[in-house]
């Protein structure tokens, strides 16, 4: 593996950048689009119903994606009071971002399957693999049920009201919990088997 501080490693990071920008932008766009379809125009009115990375990028989250293949963007604002069924709406909107990332991964896997000869081109191979891995990583990461990740919102809506209030109290500490999991390398231990399973399912299916 190239060192990230070598010329080869730096070139690899640059090639990963398009995958990171797309993964972030499409993830947040899908949140906003789902909310819009459910009757909430908040994201659209604030210019977040967009595929422009500048509208969504969080510098720290983007760097995490570039270096570790999991990270985050600026959350798309939603107003659940605009949903006919707020609890169901929050679940759908929360899952929409990861669904967009997994859809991208499916398209990449199909492309590799249909045009395997193109994988002999070094740069294209790196871009496709990065697009595949970054999107799977972002999707899986956001489904972890730790506040403020999307998975916590889904779990929170499924819990009884009494437990839901206690669960969301963790939002005060969620970021610290995630950072501890990252720097103790526990998070890759959790995510790697799930990502490997998704990769195997994709390529076995196609």
Listing every helix as H and every strand as E from the N terminus to the C terminus, the arrangement reads: HHHHHHHHH
Rg of Cα set: 18 Å
Q: Count helical runs.
A: 9
Domain count: 1
What's the end-to-end separation, in Å? 28 Å
What ranges have pLDDT less than 50 throughout 5 or more consecutive residues? 1-5
**What is the overall silhouette?**
globular
Mean pLDDT: 86
Number of strands: 0
Q: How many strands, which pairing sense, and closed or not: the largest β-sheet? A: none
What is the topology?
Elements: H1 7-37, H2 42-45, H3 59-68, H4 86-114, H5 122-142, H6 150-158, H7 161-168, H8 174-183, H9 186-205
Explain how this protein is built:
The chain has 206 residues and is mostly helical. It has one domain. Helix content is 69%, strand content 0%. It has nine helices and no strands. It has helices spanning 7-37, 42-45, 59-68, 86-114, 122-142, 150-158, 161-168, 174-183, 186-205. Helix 1 (7-37) packs across helix 5 (122-142) and helix 6 (150-158) packs antiparallel against helix 7 (161-168). The relative contact order is 0.12.
Summarize the structure.
By secondary structure, this protein is mainly alpha-helical. The protein is built from nine helices and no strands.
């Amino acid at each position: 593996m190239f060192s990230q501080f070598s010329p080869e490693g730096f070139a690899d990071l640059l090639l990963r950048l398009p995958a990171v920008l797309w993964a972030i932008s499409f993830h947040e766009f899908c949140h906003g689009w789902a909310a819009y379809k459910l009757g909430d125009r908040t994201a659209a009115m604030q210019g977040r119903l967009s595929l422009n990375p500048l509208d969504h990028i969080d510098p720290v989250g983007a760097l995490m994606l570039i270096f570790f293949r999991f990270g985050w963007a600026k959350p798309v604002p939603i107003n659940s009071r605009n949903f006919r069924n707020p609890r169901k709406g929050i679940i759908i909107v929360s899952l929409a971002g990861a669904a967009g990332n997994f859809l991208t991964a499916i398209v990449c896997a199909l492309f590799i399957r249909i045009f395997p000869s193109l994988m002999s081109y070094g740069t294209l191979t790196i871009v496709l693999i990065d697009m595949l891995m970054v999107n799977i990583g972002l999707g899986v990461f956001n489904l972890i049920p730790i506040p403020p990740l999307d998975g916590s919102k889904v779990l929170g809506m499924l819990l009884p009201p009494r437990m839901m209030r206690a669960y969301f109290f963790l939002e005060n500490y969620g970021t610290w919990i995630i950072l501890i999991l990252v720097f103790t390398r526990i998070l890759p231990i959790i995510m790697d088997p799930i990502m490997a399973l998704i990769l195997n399912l994709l390529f076995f299916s196609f």
